[in-house]
Amino acid sequence: MFEGLMGRIAGRFARVEPRFRARQLVLGLLADLPRKNCWTIAEHVGDATPGGLQHLLGRAKWDADLVRDDLREFVLEHLADDEAVLVVDETGDLKKGTHTVGVQRQYTGTAGRIENSQVAVYLTYTSRHGHAGIDRALYLPKSWTGDRDRCEQASVPDEVGFATKPQLAQQMIERVLDAGTPAAWAAGDEVYGDNPKLRAALEKRGLGYVLAVSCTHRVLTAAGPQRADHLAKRVPRRAWQKLSAGRGAKGHRWYDWALVAITAGDPTGHQHLMIRRNRTTGELAYYRCYSPRPVPLSTLVKVAGSRWTVEETFQSSKGLAGLDEHQVRRWDSWHRWVTLALLAHAFLAVTAALERRDQVPTDDGTSPGGLIPLTCNEIQRLFTALVVRPVRDTAHRLRWSTWRRRHQARARHSHYRRQTTLQP
C-alpha cells in the first residue's frame, strides 16, 4: 500500500532527488518520533543534515496541488461512496512570532481562546468505508492580505487575496465536485451554516447539506421569520425522536431530534431546521438542512453525526502524521508540508478502512476473534516496527549532536549580536 502510494506521486517530481526526499519525509512523518520537523526527521532517516528536507519544502521544483490531487484520487479509489459527506472545519496551530505566513492573534479552537496562531480550513471525505482529509486551505487574515510587503516576504502569490473561511470551504468543495468526486452531502459547524452564500452555492450544485447554525439563526416559516431557539420552544413533545448520531468510542451517541419544515428561495429542494437535544442535560443544537429530494430524519441525523469525523481526522493526523508540527514560514512550504502530512495520514486511514471492510464485527464492534479491527495508531506502530528501518548507530547520533550544538551556538551568537546592535 505504501509503495503504491509513493509510486502514485512519483511523477510529480521531475528529479530523483526531491522524489527520494519526499519519500523520506513521509516515512519520517509516519515514524514514532516525539517531535516531527526537518531536523528530527533527517536524523531519523539517516541524513547528515536537514538541508535536503528543507530544500524539498522550500526551493525544489514541484507542485503541492498536483500531489493533493493524487491524494484525493488515492482516497476515492478505496473509500468512494455516492452517499459520502464532504465535511469542512478549521483548526489552528499555535505559533510564536509574526513572520510565519498567516499568523496573527486570533481565536482558535485548539486553545479555546485568542492566541497567536495560524488557522487553516480542511476538507474531509467521509463515507461508509472510512474517512480521510483530501484538501486544505490556509486562512490569511486581512492583516496579511492588506500588507503586500509582508505577503511578498512569505512568498504569498500576488493573486491570493482575502477570503473568509466559508469562502475557502466553498472553493474546496467546488474543486472536488468539479473533479468528479462522488458525494451527496456537506457538513460543517456554525461558521459555515450561518453563511448564506455558502448554502446557496451548495444548493446550486445540488449538494445536500446539514450545517450547524447558531441559536440566533433566523429561518423563514409559514408564520414569518423565526429564530431557531424560538422555534425549538414550540416543538411538541410527540415530535421528538430518539436516534443515534453514530457509534463513538463508548458506544452509540443517542440524542433526541426534531424536524421543522422551513421555506427558502429554492422551490426545487427541501429545507428544514433540525434540532438536537441532549438526553441528559437538555442542551440544544441547531442544524440548517437541505436536500434535493425528500429524505427521512434518520438520514439527516446520520449526516450530522458524520461531522465528528473531521475532529477524528485532526486528532490522528496531528498525533500520528505531524500535521501541526511544521516549522516553516512561507506559503509554498506550508502547503508542501501539510499536503505530505495528509498523504501520510491517508495511508493510515485507508489501510485501517480496508482492514475494517474485511472484518465482520459483532454487536459491540469487535471481530469474531475478540479483537477490534486495526486502528490508525496500531497500523503506525506495526509499520514503524516491521517496515521502516531507521538509522540508529552511535556514530550517526553523535554527529547529529555535534551538528545541533554548533547550529544552536551560531544562532545564539547571532541573536546576541543583533541585541547589542539594537541597544541604544
From TrEMBL:
Coiled coil: none annotated. SUPFAM superfamilies: Ribonuclease H-like. It holds the Pfam family DDE_5. Residues 19-228 form the Transposase IS701-like DDE domain. InterPro entries: IS701-like (IPR039365), IS701-like_DDE_dom (IPR038721), RNaseH-like_sf (IPR012337). NCBIfam families: transpos_IS701. This is IS701 family transposase. It comes from Actinomadura vinacea.
